[in-house]
Amino acid sequence: MKLVFSPPPLLLLLYCATQTCGVRIQSNPVINSEGVIQIELEDTVSLLCLADDDSEAHNNKELVWLRNDAVVSLKDENKKSNSSVCISPVIHDDNGATFTCRLSTNATDEASVTLNVIYGPELNGSEQVTAEEESKLFLECDIWANPPVSFVLWTLNGSAVDLLAGGFTVTNGGYTSQLTANSVEKRLHEGTYECTATSPMYGERSKSFSVKVTDKTIKFPLMPMIAGLVVVALTALLAVVSRWKRIMKCCKSCQKQRVRS
């Protein structure tokens, strides 16, 4: 007895949703059931487009690659029957990019894959920060990640930052987390801060800040001083001009007295 196995109808429909009968894509890393390739930042993706034996592409028909809606430049020898594309290294902008292979003569005969680029927050090392008394303190951490970080914690000298006591404000956006204080005080704000982001895939990553608070410096009012000197100089010049005839008369009188003597 000869047994013949055929794929269930549901799996066959799922396969046809991402791979057409005439063109199919093989990749390294492999494509999942949803037509997505999961890849880490700075790794390499190799894509190979193949024309099935029973399709018109098998007769040396030209293949075309697109990245989203833009045509990928290929050498002539990389367009017939099978065609390959290499993405190396994978960058942030490749996340969500869709690569499509199709027949140049039949745009409906195509196959596509989408990249899911995963990466953790770039948090490491330490930074030295100096702030004057009564100035504004601003600390920032890069929390950009895919999948997004699940939690961000700011600590001061090993304990969670007391937002109320220190007058702190924490703002978490999609890319960064900021810790700010509007008026710095040495007793409240000097110390070692740490920003820790928790990633569901990469765990905890941290960056530290060593904050030193200095005394407030009295800034010399340079511009007002210059303006004052200019006013004084102009006033003196006007006074001399207004009394010029009297000054000259006085000088002539002095000269005559010297001649007589």
UniProtKB/TrEMBL annotation:
It is found in: Membrane. Residues 8-114, 121-214 form the Ig-like domain. Residues 1-22 form the signal peptide. GO terms for cellular component: cell-cell junction; plasma membrane. The chain crosses the membrane at residues 222-242. Keywords: Disulfide bond, Glycoprotein, Immunoglobulin domain, Membrane, Signal, Transmembrane, Transmembrane helix. This is Ig-like domain-containing protein. The lineage of its organism: Eukaryota, Metazoa, Chordata, Craniata, Vertebrata.
